[in-house]
Amino acid sequence: MTTTNPTYQSEYQASVDSPVDFWADKACALPWFKAPSAKLTTDENGQQLWFADAKLNTCYMALDHHVKQGRGDQVAVIYDSPVTGQKAQYSYAQMQEWVAKFADVLQQQGVSKGDRVVIYMPMIVEAVVAMLATARLGAVHSVVFGGFAAAELAVRIDDAKPKALVTASCGIEINKVIEYKPMVDQAIEMAESPPQSVVILQRAECQAALVANRDIDWQQAMQTAEPTECVPVAGSDPLYILYTSGTTGKPKGVVRDNAGHAVALHYSMSAVYDMQPGDVFWAASDVGWVVGHSYIVYAPLLKGCTTVVYEGKPIKTPDAGAFWRVAEKYKVKALFAAPTAFRAIRKEDPNGELIQDYDLSQLKNIFMAGERLDPPTLEWTQNKTGKPVIDHWWQTETGWSIAANLTGIELLPVKAGSATRPVPGFDVQILDENGEQLGANEQGAIAIKLPLPPSCLNTIWGDHQRYQEGYLSQFPGYYCTGDGGYIDEDGYLFVMGRTDDVINVAGHRLSTGEMEEVLAAHDAVAECSVIGVPDGLKGQVPVGLAVLKNGAEIQQSELQSELVSMIRRDIGAVACLKQALIVPRLPKTRSGKILRKLLRQIAEAQPYTIPSTIDDPASVDELAGIMEENGLVVRE
Ligand code: COA
Ligand code: AMP
């Protein structure tokens, strides 16, 4: 139960002692069509469901409810686009009308409750409109990040089997226009379950050619569209599918429910971010990632805040003062971005001189997530802005933070390198490989004791077995996060990195296994490995190590450029693979498994021991030597 003045400890303890009462209390704050009677249930597949029998519509909670409360004139969404020079603001009433009409456009294409809609769009307000319109119909959106190539889009289309796809003619990156339509056309050609129709927003920077009997012009369709009402869904019905990288080449479709998502996100806005209705929240991310779903779109609107949709970068659009300009102009109270963005700003403006040009008095806290917040970036941002900098740790799978410093409840002292303490609802424990709980400061696998709080995934789209095997089977009774780390004597959590083949490049989660599948398709490559090497700007960058087939004749520079192009073509520019080395052999076990962990340890200049199962011990030192010569051993 909520007390009048909760401390971190009282709030957290209540959430783990009595999760059902705790979340039932938080759920009371939301405008349900029918309030949930069952709080936490388990279905026939063993899926844990929060508020399954509630009736709601997430779009209603995010827009219509606020209009009904008389707050229709408040700004809901601010669009600021330094790459096009455009700025605009939309009230809750305007967003409601826009979304209600676009829902009709989708409805005209046959989209109804439960159907999937793939959204492949840049950072423009229409992306938010498309997401909310899908939710309004009780349909399920699946947003694909614009930096992914056609093949990645095709894989997601085939898995989600959408009825419609919504896109724009182009996205705009630093000094370049990226045409989206050719990638959409190519993806649809590759897909086995293509959508019946494609809705295209034509942008001034580029006009896309339309395919007859399939493509619909967004603007034209809107001219005749009529506003539609919100379709009630059950609490456990899916709101969206968001694909994320796992250890294999096939991305995992994380399924988010409607009710648990709304409850957790609404709670997080006050508890984690200290936001109240009317405050301005800015997550400088992209709607293609979970941060964008949760904190550009849903959470700020569920709470009645104003959200900023920023189409630009932290630097070069036009300079490293971009974040401070936006924060001043819109009186942003909470800014949330990835550490890599602040590393980029620091590189361009090391003394923080541009910060002095702006009035940041309204900015209360800066939040960072998406990758480990390295202590120098934490200290630089704190010192130069004079604001509290809050590291918080989370995953696509949870949809909100697992560990954080609860600025809306009690700000605890910050420890550099730590995401502070578990967020209410998450019983975080450190386990050894046998599932035994480890003591303070002992490093192991980070696991969360079940039940998970609301909003966390409870299945993988179309593959429940993958969910169980990937997350629940390693430590029975726990959700395995895939991250390693430790909890110190004060209960602070230190997340040290992934224990699997996932890497984090500029705050973007990517699979080295998937990149290996692409490189292995090259004619000259017998076997290969992709490892994440520490990078001063992007946190990690992928590097390919390739062993040539017998008799293959190819120069290092030629192979590298071909492999780099293959990754850009098959995964996308966002993968940032720029270096691929020919090596004589890779360290493997006798059973033929490449020792990826060992390669990572070499790259991070960590002490390593050569396992007894290794096939050829000399291969390790040989490879370490090659990596050192090529600048791939990075000492912090
Ligand atoms: N659509 C199309 N292409 C995209 C894209 C998009 N939405 N986003 C990135 N790309 C492309 C870029 O143009 C670049 O292509 P290039 O190799 O041809 O130049 C490539 O993908 C890599 O992009 P990026 O990782 O953004 O690197 P960058 O050097 O352009 O910018 C930073 C560096 C640090 C400024 C940038 O990575 C950044 O802002 N990071 C923050 C990330 C973030 O917010 N993550 C969300 C998690 S919270
Ligand atoms: P994503 O699913 O894209 O949000 O990526 C989740 C992964 O990013 C986590 O499993 C971590 O490895 C990493 N991550 C996110 N936030 C943090 C953080 N604050 N500290 C350390 N790692 C983080």
TrEMBL record:
<dbReference type="InterPro" id="IPR032387">
    <property type="entry name" value="ACAS_N"/>
</dbReference>
<dbReference type="InterPro" id="IPR042099">
    <property type="entry name" value="ANL_N_sf"/>
</dbReference>
<feature type="domain" description="Acetyl-coenzyme A synthetase N-terminal">
    <location>
        <begin position="8"/>
        <end position="62"/>
    </location>
</feature>
<protein>
    <submittedName>
        <fullName>Propionyl-CoA synthetase</fullName>
    </submittedName>
</protein>
<feature type="domain" description="AMP-binding enzyme C-terminal">
    <location>
        <begin position="514"/>
        <end position="593"/>
    </location>
</feature>
<dbReference type="Pfam" id="PF00501">
    <property type="entry name" value="AMP-binding"/>
</dbReference>
<feature type="domain" description="AMP-dependent synthetase/ligase">
    <location>
        <begin position="66"/>
        <end position="449"/>
    </location>
</feature>
<dbReference type="InterPro" id="IPR025110">
    <property type="entry name" value="AMP-bd_C"/>
</dbReference>
<dbReference type="Pfam" id="PF13193">
    <property type="entry name" value="AMP-binding_C"/>
</dbReference>
<dbReference type="Pfam" id="PF16177">
    <property type="entry name" value="ACAS_N"/>
</dbReference>
<dbReference type="InterPro" id="IPR000873">
    <property type="entry name" value="AMP-dep_synth/lig_dom"/>
</dbReference>
<dbReference type="InterPro" id="IPR045851">
    <property type="entry name" value="AMP-bd_C_sf"/>
</dbReference>
<comment type="similarity">
    <text>Belongs to the ATP-dependent AMP-binding enzyme family.</text>
</comment>
<dbReference type="InterPro" id="IPR020845">
    <property type="entry name" value="AMP-binding_CS"/>
</dbReference>
